[in-house]
Amino acid sequence: MVKALWWRAALAFVALPTIVALVVPVLLLGGCLAGRSFNLLALIPFTAGLALLLWCVGAFYRTGHGTLAPWDPPRKLVVTGVYRRSRNPMYVAVTLILWAWALGFSSPSLAAYAIVVMTAFHLRVVFGEEPWLARTYGANWERYKARVPRWLGVRRSRSE
């Protein structure tokens, strides 16, 4: 069972953040990174995003007993670690990686892609994930939602 969950988590990681945060950016850059100038300061958000993403995937696996994939979500609500500061640190992590690509290669098309992905993440959270979490975890979700902002420290209203 544990081995099967590990493989499902690995597959979900390859299927989702790897495509969004690696494959698409490389394709938008024309597929060839050789010879392109790169601002090394972009390694800071890239490294932070990658570390955060890997921590979140691990937390979903260890604590939540599931994966980051919508078709195999965690069985338990994950509220530890960085999930005490943001309800969506995995999306924050991918966003950091996307902005690192855009900044590193000074690419307007990658910046536009980052904005589109951020918008898609927000819509998915508001209209898909949060209603599902409310139905699945009930009062536990409501208590968690009341004390932890959707994004990093950004709380617009109590009804968020």
Sum up the structure in keywords.
0% strand, single chain, mainly alpha
Write the layout of secondary structure elements.
Elements: H1 2-15, H2 17-28, H3 43-62, H4 89-104, H5 108-147
Q: Can you describe what's shown?
A:
With 160 residues, the protein is mainly alpha-helical. The chain has helices at residues 2-15, 17-28, 43-62, 89-104, 108-147. It has one domain. The protein has 5 helices and no strands. α2 (17-28) runs parallel beside α4. The longest helix is centred in the last third of the chain and has 40 residues, at 108-147. The N and C termini lie far apart (36 Å). The model has no long low-confidence stretch (mean pLDDT 88).
Q: Total number of β-strand segments? A: 0
How much of the sequence lies in strands comes to under 5%
How far apart are the termini?
Answer: 36 Å
Radius of gyration: 16 Å
Number of helices: 5
Give helix and strand order, one letter per element, not per position: HHHHH
Q: What's the helical proportion of residues?
A: 55-70%
Any low-confidence stretches, pLDDT <50, length ≥5? none
Give the domain tally. Answer: 1
Overall morphology: globular
Overall mean pLDDT? 88
Largest sheet: none
Derived structural class:
mainly alpha
